[in-house]
Amino acid sequence: MTIITSYSHKPIEENQIRLLKFVEDESSSSIHAVLEPFSIKEPLPKFRSISYAWACDESGLARNRGIRIDGQGLYVLDSLYTFLEALKSKRTMYDGGWWWIDSVCIDQGNLEERASQVEHLQQIYRAAEQVIVWLGEESHDSDLAIDFIKILDRYSREKHSVEELRSELEIEKYHGEWKALEYFLARRWWSRMWTVQEFVLPRSISFWCGMRSIGRVSICRALAVANRCTTIGIKETAGFTNGLNRRRVWGLYKAGKPGENVTLSLSALTSYFSSMDATDDRDRLYGLMALASDASLMDVNYFLPSQEIYLRFAQSFITHYKSLDIISFASIYSSPSSSSQPSWVPYWQKKTPLVIPLMVSQSCRSHIGNLRTPHALEYDHSIGYSASKKRAAVYSFEGSNLLARGVVVDVVDGLAGNKKFELVQSSEWSSTQLSPPNNFSATEILVSVCRCIALDRKDRYLRYAMPSKDFFQDFVRLLEQLLTESQSAFLSSPAQELQEWFEWTRSLQIHGRSFKTILRDSLDQDQVDIYRDPTNPAPNQDEYYHDTFFGRFFDTVVRLSLRLMVSRNGRIGMVQEKAMKGDLICVLFGCNVPVLLRNSESGDGVTFVGECFLDGCMDGSVLDDHGLLEKTFCIR
Length: 636
Known about the structure:
Elements (H helix, E strand, L loop, with lengths): L15 E8 L8 E8 L7 E6 L12 E5 L2 E5 L1 H12 L8 E3 L1 H4 L5 H8 L2 H7 L2 E5 L7 H16 L4 H8 L5 H11 L9 H6 L4 E5 L2 E4 H12 L10 H17 L11 H7 L10 H4 L19 H16 L73 E4 L2 E15 L26 H13 L13 H17 L11 H10 L3 E2 L2 E2 H9 L25 H11 L3 E5 L4 E4 L8 E5 L6 E5 L6 E9 L15 E6 L1
Parallel strand pairs: 2-4, 3-6, 3-7, 7-8
Antiparallel strand pairs: 1-2, 1-6, 4-5, 8-9, 10-11, 11-14, 11-16, 11-19, 12-13, 14-15, 15-18, 16-17, 17-18
Helix pairs in contact: 5-7, 5-9, 7-10, 9-10, 14-15, 14-17, 15-17
Protein name: Heterokaryon incompatibility domain-containing protein
Pfam families: HET, Het-6_barrel
């Protein structure tokens, strides 16, 4: 039946929402409904909501089918219509219940109403009696995926060890099931920005795929089991990351004490979900505000372009927290050269999946935070990067430029290579370049390199200090095999990633010696003989365990692509892979980690490169050097 679009939304007050009720009309084959306003200041009637991807794989955002509201026709999204057909097939459409469906209940053509309704989303999804996630119509393997989720759920409840899970699940028998799960998580819903909050906020969720359904708890348990299976390939898929991050956010929110919510900052949430799809790039911030602890930092305004919104959010963060930490996100979320956005403002529409927290997301600083699991909420309060000590941020905004006070600590000189960049050799070395003058032994240099690789922390979430002896032991035992090019009788071969890193780093000059020479000299010293003891446990080279030396190496070098760096004055550190010889290593007041700044070619300011780990300078002690001159940087 052809439906002529004629329905027009009646205006509502700012404190109102619309709810939809389907009504049966035996004289027509069309779907009929009524739409009524309700005040959110008063108790709402019981209602359900649907969470779905607006676009279809086949027809995109097309509206080829319609329904009748209050007797008038309204074309709806094709993806929504498939759900309505499923609802009708299940014979639950005309049960008298109310529904909240965003594309129908909000006048999408009214930008002011859209902005107003976004601010009610948290209340709407928490108030809903149930939220139904519509993943779409069934496919040839969707039933297999749901059955496999139930199998993984059972394994989770049976409390198997990691080794048991791998031996029983990483086998040919389940090849088809793993592929089905991969396709299940690749459905469009998992990649949509708005669906993140729709996964986390509701009290009750049911996932519908065709005529089958499954609960949120079962999916989360299945994801936890799949996360332990490292050889089947699913962990490298975008769909798995999207699902796992949803599970982690939900777990974090559930971890709060009664009456309290454990929440994350908008900057942290946006970084973890930057790889999501959003039709409107402004929604990369707006779509997560209902989950954010600091959503009040910005207003919803669909009349401003996305880059202006990103700029205003960064300015608001700095002003509210008196902290420059947010600029570190521009380390990864950097704007393209064609963009006019300032280098210090995170370019949130860059789709870079972030699994590993940046250093400014350290657990002991709650103004940003990280997406750690509920069992990892505890941390050592006595540790924390504090490169500028307690120096308050001194800043101002000049148009889109950030004027920030700080000091130049050193200059980047040598850089290890990686898959994208060749090694950049250090300049000729003189021991008088050290500040203060010192002659470090080979072992002391090697320990410093180990600290740099681990960012001097034990775990991914930067909760505890690095266990120096244990990590250094693993570091030396793994590298010794690469140096001698012989297989140990009691150690497994170093992982391919570590072998590649050694090849990219072996020639880097540190204090006048190559890294390979430093390693050999250190191994020749009596004090490291203990690390060759075959009775010591073999180093763990499983990237799943992020609280080991190899786990930290995998996070910083493989996942974050950080490069080992030697400064002009002999300091050792880790920097973003895009760092260059001559970049300034700076401490900006009000920023907890050092940063790299690059002089502009025109000489009228600097651009932001990224955050930096500088061994021995993360606690602010470098500011005690009275020879450092304070200056104001104009960061463009």
